[in-house]
Design a protein that fits this description.
The chain is an all-alpha fold. It has a single domain, classed as Orthogonal Bundle (Arc Repressor Mutant, subunit A). The protein has four helices and no strands. Helix 1 crosses helix 3 and helix 2 packs across helix 3. The two termini are 15 Å apart.
Amino acid sequence: LTDAEREVLAALLMGSTNRHIAHSRNCSEHTVANQIQSIFRKVGVHSRSELPVRLQREA
């Protein structure tokens, strides 16, 4: 993952919304949505709820 994707991933795992992530990173919600889709592809999940499960399994 890129540095930006890691930041977004950390925020996702804390339960942040796209809007909150965008505001805190000073970027658009569209950018955040694109980064989330890239994270999903790279990690191999299809939803936010799958992320923690997959990441725990990989750890």
